[in-house]
């Protein structure tokens, strides 16, 4: 019985990207800088899967608190991104064997980021009376600035970032969750031709600035990948199963997904992952996105929170390893960096770790990989699917 378990620690980069300068990210290093700033960082299980050594190979320096010669139980690599962007969609698609070699559309970082004709069409189609924001922002900062006005006026908050996204924040109770989802669908349709990766619904609750909280009802409306991902191939070629835990299904626009499991927060994401692994049959991929590393810690520039989250994940790893059967392959990886010590609140262009564990994985360095797509190609080979167009198998 063959199964592949992909644990995606969203934004967990390990520095060293050769092209980081192009993104204004030269020297960024999510793991390296978290480790450097923390008095301790206790990640024994990730360390034995090769995390510290992968980071050293990636950027030339062993992160603080890691040993040069850990007791190694898995194979480790780092991977470079060939996709043009450092966004979640590009990272995930490339990992699944479909790099994004075209340029996404982006909204400029200035007041009035969104084109007027687009906004006019959205207003006309949706019946909203107008909008707030219309700029680049951190999603929590903009709630403090405009959340109260939004509640008074009923106008949704439109904002974007360095990623190819159109984000809409609205109060779950006063604006209504379904109204927000409907508005997002209208915006998604109106963005035809703009080449925008995602429209993101950002519902929140609370009564006043400083107390607003975003909820787990976030929803991402993605475009479809431009070619077949390894997830789709598993379903089509082997009648296999792909289980999405967390926001995976949204990121692939629900293509190549057999089952969608919702979960909010690291604990529930981990619990639900274990449940799914317990019941998964042959030819199954269980794919979990731990979004909190990115959304709660990376973008929020919260070093201590990120470190605590990593320690929590590490503490629970043995539960996952214990569930693994003879022919299971575990891959722990990331989709981009989001260095919490970096300026601004955007992602950072970095290498990602590729930590592999399973009976067929040699316990050694498995190389500096030239594309994240090596992961997809490895899975295609492991599950005996037809080869992907990009990537070289790692094992
Ligand atoms: O600041 P928040 O709203 O968390 O937004 C972040 O989340 C978006 C999608 O992952 C990114 O584009 C980034 O802007
Ligand atoms: Mn991401
Ligand atoms: Mn992000």
TrEMBL record:
Organism (species): Exercitatus varius
Keyword Isomerase: yes
Family as reported in the entry's similarity comment: Belongs to the phosphopentomutase family.
UniProt keyword terms in alphabetical order: Cytoplasm, Isomerase, Manganese, Metal-binding
EC number: 5.4.2.7
GO terms for MF: magnesium ion binding; manganese ion binding; phosphopentomutase activity
Stated name of the protein: Phosphopentomutase
Function in brief: Isomerase that catalyzes the conversion of deoxy-ribose 1-phosphate (dRib-1-P) and ribose 1-phosphate (Rib-1-P) to deoxy-ribose 5-phosphate (dRib-5-P) and ribose 5-phosphate (Rib-5-P), respectively.
UniProt binding sites for Mn(2+) 2: 294, 299, 347
Boundaries of every Metalloenzyme domain copy: 2-386
Principal location: cytoplasm
Catalytic reaction(s) noted: alpha-D-ribose 1-phosphate = D-ribose 5-phosphate; 2-deoxy-alpha-D-ribose 1-phosphate = 2-deoxy-D-ribose 5-phosphate
Single Gene Ontology BP annotation: nucleotide metabolic process
A Pfam family of this chain: Metalloenzyme
């Amino acid at each position: 019985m063959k199964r592949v378990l992909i644990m995606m620690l969203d934004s967990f980069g390990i520095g060293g990207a050769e092209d980081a300068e192009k993104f204004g990210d030269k020297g960024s290093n999510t793991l390296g800088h978290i480790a450097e700033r923390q008095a301790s960082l206790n990640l024994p299980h990730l360390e034995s899967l090769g995390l510290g050594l992968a980071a050293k190979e990636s950027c030339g320096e062993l992160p603080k608190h890691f040993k040069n010669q850990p007791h190694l139980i898995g194979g480790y690599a780092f991977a470079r991104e060939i996709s043009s962007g450092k966004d979640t969609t590009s990272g995930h698609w490339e990992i699944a064997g479909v790099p994004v070699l075209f340029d996404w559309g982006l909204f400029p970082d200035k007041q009035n980021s969104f084109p007027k004709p687009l906004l006019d069409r959205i207003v006309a189609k949706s019946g909203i009376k107008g909008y707030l924001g219309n700029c680049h922002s951190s999603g929590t900062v903009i709630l403090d600035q405009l959340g109260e006005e939004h509640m008074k006026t009923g106008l949704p908050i439109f904002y974007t970032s360095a990623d190819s996204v159109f984000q809409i924040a609205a109060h779950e109770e006063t604006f209504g969750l379904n109204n927000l989802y409907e508005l997002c669908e209208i915006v998604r349709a109106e963005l035809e031709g703009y080449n925008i990766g995602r429209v993101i619904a950002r519902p929140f609750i609370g009564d006043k600035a400083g107390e607003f909280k975003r909820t787990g009802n976030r929803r991402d409306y993605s475009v479809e990948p431009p070619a077949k991902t390894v997830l789709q191939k598993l379903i089509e070629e082997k009648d296999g199963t792909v289980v999405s835990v967390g926001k995976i299904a949204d990121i692939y626009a629900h293509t190549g997904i057999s089952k969608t499991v919702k979960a909010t927060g690291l604990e529930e994401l981990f619990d639900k992952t274990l449940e799914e692994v317990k019941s998964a049959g042959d030819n199954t991929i269980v794919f979990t996105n731990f979004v909190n590393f990115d959304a709660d810690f990376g973008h929020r520039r919260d070093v201590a929170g990120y470190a605590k989250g990593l320690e929590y994940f590490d503490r629970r790893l043995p539960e996952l390893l214990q569930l693994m059967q003879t022919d299971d392959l575990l891959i722990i990886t990331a989709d981009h960096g989001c260095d919490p010590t970096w300026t601004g609140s955007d992602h950072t262009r970095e290498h990602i770790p590729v930590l592999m564990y399973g009976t067929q994985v040699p316990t050694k360095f498995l190389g500096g990989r030239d594309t994240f797509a090596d992961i997809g190609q490895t899975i295609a080979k492991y599950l005996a699917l037809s080869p992907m167009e990009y990537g070289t198998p790692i094992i």
